[in-house]
Structure formats: structure tokens, C-alpha cells
Amino acid sequence: MTEEESGRTPARVVVADDQTVVREGIVMLLGLLPGVEVVGAASDGEEAVRLVAELAPDVVLMDLRMPRCDGVEATRRIRSEHPGTQVVVLTTYADDASVFPALRAGARGYLTKDAGGDEIVRAVHGVLSGDAGLAPSIQRRLLERLSESESQPRHTGPTEPPDGLTARETEVLVLIAEGLNNTQIASRLQVSTATVKTHINNLFAKTGVKDRAQAVRYAYGKGLVRPPGG
Fold it and tell me: Could you tell me how far CA 76 lies from the centroid of its own chain?
């Protein structure tokens, strides 16, 4: 981990997993790493929602398949009732039936349990910075699903940016869809990360998207980005 990463304010995290050994293992692992502070642990989705209400953590690391209230429903409730808390899914499952409902429910990140501690910490801080904390395999799956929906012929692109986007906001949107984070976009466009965040906030407001995963879907749906191999 870089000096910059180790010096930042620790993110307050709740871990939700119904398997005691797994939950305690994640808590122990994160306790050894700089950049995060585990403030609570939940054994199911109901307890996760309750802890978020009590503790107002920055991020919940959310398993999906849990009793009483599963991870998708817990994510939906947390994002609706406590929008200041982000959710990163941390689960064994990477199939479409698990990934897409979680993202639609409002999860900003999605990792599988073979992720290392540093990868988890990066995802936690990434979603707090406005980036999508998606494992590479999950991002590929998202792009594959989007490309599958491109069965109907499309124009090569709109004659002008949709929904009142400026040319620069459209450019930022395309780079988001290509998987670049804020730092990479800033480097590509030779602007500051603060400027990139301003463009992102503006384009989110204009298009009505709530997160980067929705922004990717929007960019493909408007024909701003071609599917892989298209």
C-alpha cells in the first residue's frame, strides 16, 4: 500500500456475513490493514441494516446469501434509508443472478471472497471517492451483459450529446464506461481530479444516474460506447 493510502482517514466499515468463521476472519484481516476501521459485524441482512442505523458506517461489506434478509434486500434498504453509507458486496458468487440484482439494488462495489485484503481496502476507498469497486472479472461480466443487449442496430453515435451534456461531460462519461477511475480520467484529459469529480456530478445530475454502474449502462444505451468487438 502506498504512503498516500496509508495516511488517509480510515474508512468505518461494517462486515455482514452469516458464516461466523468467515465474518470473524474478514474482521481480523481488516484489523491488520491500514485504511479501514471495522466498527461492527452482522450475521444477517436485518442486523446489517440495524447496525447501519446505529453506527452510520462509511461502507458495508455485504455477503449476499444470508438468512432473514439477504444481501440484495439489505443493500436496497441501506441505500434507500441511509444514503450516506455505501455497499461493497463481498461474496462467493459471481454469476449474473447474483451480480446484477446487487448492482441494481445500489451496491457500488462487487468483490469475490478470493480478493486480498489490499484489494478490499482499495474497493472501500474507491467507492467513497466515487469510483466503482468492481473486481476485473465482474467488470468484464457487466460489459459482456451490456454488449449482449446491443442486438438492435444503432447509429454510430448521437449527432449531439444527449440530455444536455457538454462535450467534456460526454467525454468523461465515455471514459467511465471504458473502466477508468477518476485519477486515470484526470490524467487522460490533463485536468485535476477535482475537475473530473465536478464533471461527474454534473453528468449524473443531467442523466439521472446514481452511480458509475448506471452511468456505464447509460453510455451503452445512448450509443456513446460500442460493445467489445462491435
Answer: 14
